[in-house]
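Co-fold these.
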Amino acid sequence: MRRTPAIKQALPTRDRILEAASRCFSKHSYDATGLRDIAADAGVDVAYVHRCFGSKERLFAQALAATARPDRLLTGSSDSVAQALAKQLFAHDTDEDINPLDIIVRSLTNPDAARVLREFIVQDFIGPLATKLEQPALLRAAVIAAFLAGIGILRNVLSIKPLLETEGGQLEKLILGTITTTMHATTTSERGKAPGKRRQ
Amino acid sequence: MRRTPAIKQALPTRDRILEAASRCFSKHSYDATGLRDIAADAGVDVAYVHRCFGSKERLFAQALAATARPDRLLTGSSDSVAQALAKQLFAHDTDEDINPLDIIVRSLTNPDAARVLREFIVQDFIGPLATKLEQPALLRAAVIAAFLAGIGILRNVLSIKPLLETEGGQLEKLILGTITTTMHATTTSERGKAPGKRRQ
DNA sequence: GATCCATGTCAACCGTTGTTGACTAGGGCG
DNA sequence: CGCCCTAGTCAACAACGGTTGACATGGATC
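Predicted complex below.
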């Protein structure tokens, strides 16, 4: 059940806990993941998990920050970013692997986790992404974030069937088209008004 | 605190519980909503709530079915549907009003609620919507459902700021454009292949 | 050797939750 | 009156959750 126990035991315990937390939170929701589950996965006592991180919420925040690294996807032109984002949705998560998107979407509805996630999504995703987009940039970035979260939830959490087939790439193409549209579509009235003052 | 108590008291108790459940589930997540909260809102004992509906999950299912009526939005041409969907996202929910979308998105991550919601989304939304779309219809409908869920969550649950301003209609226009794109965009290779055989 | 600190364990607390069984009030009915 | 059924209450259970404080251990330091 334990993979490569030698290596894992060699890691400082705190890192093992963090990794266990990432794994648990990416497989189950914030509510469904107990500190005892994480402790058992890391091979330590519950009390120690708590003492290491102060609270469940802080542990979640650290696990999130350590695992989800959107900056890696947000490099290059807006078009290459769009492709990277679309592809990320299909990062297959095995029992051992951790899909960073899952850590986000599985806990979206818990108030404690939501505080952490809002901060993270705004500062580490929407903000950076917006720098690559046309005005209204923050709005476009937020809509794209919502789209990705929605696909992630319906696909990875709810397992809605039409979204599960990666065959033929139809889904990926559809998603890519949608993201691209949101990036570039005009939001002003059809007639090309003066592109000067837009408040965002 | 109680609005129009005369009318509410006149309703059969079971309906009052159902209404209280809808209200609670649209304001808080499945996990955060206790049967005692619903009972208190309806003015009855917890035990009675449970005996009326058998379990929390069944109560949730009934409250969902009674409140969320996507069929009302899915009439007319695909374009008018797109507009109705985009508008539904901005149905303002006051403390008294219930936004049907919230009941869905607030509980997406709880496993018990997820069972109920998957069934509901597939059968009452994706299915009907797909009948109005081009092939691959189910895939397009599912992507649109994911998009709406994503906006609903980031806007109504996480309160992501750029999504909150309804001013100017920029957001609604962006959303409408995205939905329309998903409805009509081609999913085959760019060069206009023979539009004949597409498998979905 | 004695002291100190980090690392960790053990047992328990306290609140909450869905759920259950025993009980009560009241109205229809024979 | 006596009976029964529905509607509804009350108290409690059993489990679980995050959290806490007291205690063990082992190496480093003086």
